[in-house]
Write a structure and sequence with these properties.
The protein is mostly helical. The protein is built from eleven helices and two strands; from the N terminus they run H-H-H-H-H-H-H-E-E-H-H-H-H.
Length: 330
């Protein structure tokens, strides 16, 4: 018996497949909601039969933020080689933004939070975990990105377990103002970069200030005195979602820092500063009701979502700069 396929039938099948991929892509593009960190920490500590010690909350936040890269609709999409994932760019950009914050915190924990001084030994679990997060986020061949990230998370679980073990002296987390300032300085640079890139959605002229403030400063090659910054039209949404992912990850890490560094922040009367930064980051996570990221001019008729995001990012960054200054004082 021969089965005949008409052009109409084939066209309908193709249209149905494409539409199914479209719906799946829309579902996969939903960003994760904000997590209830305190509830998660309480549940994790109870399941392990331990009491949360200094550093337990920050480590848990880093673990859960990282796990959310694959524990969401569609899983980890940045290295997808098949449809519909290969056609999506917003969530992969979101993943990369969150990943950048994971990398910064993992490095801060390895180099600062887990060490009492510059000559102290590096924690072995963090030494294992931190490099795992630096693998190319788009790598799909063996070893894939998410497989390396999962190994890094497993090492973080081991570090957290050792932290909470009263009989273990090999894992520590030091809540000192200088350690916190070192991490915040890296966060400043990240947020400053996001603010500039988001603002470039409308294009603007900028004076070259690379050597400002130091008459003896030099650079490798001669640069123009004026720079025209303008984000390409096809990159507008990528820049937006990368900043959104970074802000999402950072607000969870700051909530953890607020708990673990309670003594340091209270001494500097800086808790309210952290809380205000968190509020700005939470505001950046509001629902985008438009079906696409709009790119109207600064004071134009159409909204510009990038400029709105840049506003929240800039305000959070200003708060972090003030916080850093506050922590530097005796």
């Amino acid at each position: 018996m021969k089965i005949k396929f008409s052009i109409k039938t084939v066209s309908l099948v193709i249209a149905a497949v494409v539409f199914s991929f479209y719906l799946l892509g829309v579902y996969w593009s939903f960003k994760p909601d904000e997590m209830d960190l305190k509830t998660i920490v309480t549940a994790e500590a109870k399941s392990e039969g331990v009491s949360p010690v200094i550093g337990y909350t920050t480590t848990t936040a880093l673990i859960k933020v990282t796990e959310k890269l694959w524990d969401k609709p569609g899983g980890y999409l940045s290295n997808d080689a098949m449809p519909p994932g290969i056609f999506l760019d917003n969530i992969p950009a979101w993943e990369f933004g969150a990943l950048e914050m994971v990398r910064d915190m993992a490095l801060a924990m390895r180099q600062g939070f887990s060490r009492s001084q510059s000559q102290s030994l590096v924690n072995e679990q963090l030494k294992e975990a931190q490099p795992r997060f630096n693998i190319d986020n788009t790598r799909w061949a063996f070893p894939s990105s998410e497989s390396e990230y999962k190994k890094g998370v497993m090492a973080l679980y081991q570090y957290r377990k050792a932290l909470a073990d009263p009989n273990s002296q090999n894992a520590q987390f030091y809540t000192r103002a200088d350690n916190l300032r070192a991490w915040l300085q890296q966060v400043e640079k990240r947020l400053g970069s996001y603010s500039q890139r988001l603002s470039a959605s409308v294009g603007h002229e900028q004076n070259n200030t690379d050597l400002a403030g130091d008459s003896g400063a030099q650079q490798s090659t001669v640069a123009a005195t004026h720079v025209r910054l303008k984000t390409g039209w096809f990159k507008i949404d990528d820049e937006f979602y990368e900043a959104r992912g970074a802000a999402w990850a950072l607000l969870h890490l700051l909530k953890a820092v607020e708990i673990d560094f309670d003594g340091v922040l209270a001494k500097k009367n800086a808790k309210v500063s952290v809380q205000q930064i968190i509020k700005e980051l939470e505001a950046s996570q509001q629902t985008v009701w438009s079906p696409m990221i709009l790119n109207g001019s600064g004071f134009g008729f159409v909204a510009n979502h990038s400029l709105v995001m840049a506003n929240y990012i800039s305000r959070a960054n200003a708060g972090i700069i003030d916080l850093n200054e506050l922590l530097s004082k005796g």
